[in-house]
Write a structure and sequence with these properties.
single chain, alpha+beta, Jelly Rolls, 7-stranded mixed β-sheet, 3-stranded antiparallel β-sheet, 7 helices, binds 2-oxoglutaric acid
């Protein structure tokens, strides 16, 4: 079966301009070489260290909405787990993409690691703005995913239905079988339009596959993570102005404190 809305999928590109073109056409883009080798090493070490510790101390969480339960490991609230995740949340390439798509100010809706483990399963097929009313003619959410390991078909690279961001409704029968793997080298930034249908692939590689999913949204939408309750006070204390804005701690019109925009 062929679908006239389905595209061949994004090419890997190296610039933001080219990435935004792919994103508009395919509902996804892959920009390679965004993380420097040093930053990639630091983020890789932090991701697997936190994952290991969360398992050791019984904090480990597994996504609750799919067949991947109890297999793939999720680490929620990444900005509170290690400063490197704050650096990624406000990475200049990510912020430029957010400014050129959602505008500014924008909110960080959530930032979590998904570590697809060997013999894992796919989570539920979904879009990242599926909780919003109806099909919207523009994305209100973008998922900016940092590939911490290479994303390959074998290790469970995210499966996407390219072109599905322009579909008016759910994924038609038969389309899920035609999804493609978003193959990307470690250090890439993989961006999804909030309307693009996707899930993680099944990891058959024998090693973990970590992606850090930073989801940004319009500033007047309730974020997925309630930063006021969950952010580590050190991030509140030491984080940059950009981070304070992303967490909703710099009110503009909405989100005031005693009617004031400043505490
Ligand atoms: O881990 C993946 O490849 C997909 C994760 C995902 O779909 C999500 O966090 O929304």
């Amino acid at each position: 079966m062929t679908f006239d809305w389905m595209t061949s999928g994004p090419r890997s590109v190296e610039t933001i301009d080219a990435g935004l073109e792919e994103l508009a056409l395919h509902g996804a883009c892959i920009i390679t070489g965004v993380l420097s080798p040093d930053l990639l090493d630091i983020a890789h070490e932090a991701t697997y260290r936190v994952a290991r510790n969360e398992r050791k101390y019984g904090w480990a969480q597994h996504y609750q909405y799919g067949a991947d339960d109890h297999v793939n490991q999720r680490i929620w609230n990444l900005p509170s787990r290690d400063p490197v995740f704050c650096e990624l949340a406000e990475h200049p390439v990510a912020i430029e993409i957010v400014k050129r798509t959602l505008g500014w100010p924008a909110t960080l809706s959530s930032m979590s690691a998904n570590i697809a483990n060997d013999s894992g399963a796919s989570m539920i097929l979904h879009t990242d703005q599926g909780y919003l009313p109806g099909q919207l003619d523009r994305p209100w959410v973008y998922n900016l995913a940092w590939c911490i390991d290479d994303f390959t078909a074998e290790n469970g690279a995210t499966l996407i239905a390219p072109g599905s961001h322009l579909l008016d409704g759910p994924l038609p029968d038969g389309a899920a079988e035609q999804m493609i793997s978003a193959i990307a080298p470690a250090g890439s930034l993989f961006v999804l339009d909030g309307r693009t249908h996707h899930t993680n692939g099944v990891n058959r590689s024998g090693a973990g596959r970590a992606g850090l999913f930073a989801v940004y949204t319009l500033p007047w939408l309730m974020p997925q993570e309630n930063w006021s309750l969950s952010i580590d006070p050190a991030v509140r204390q030491f984080g940059s102005e950009t981070l304070q804005t992303l967490f909703g701690f710099r009110p503009q019109v909405l989100g005031r404190v005693n009617g004031q925009e400043r505490l």
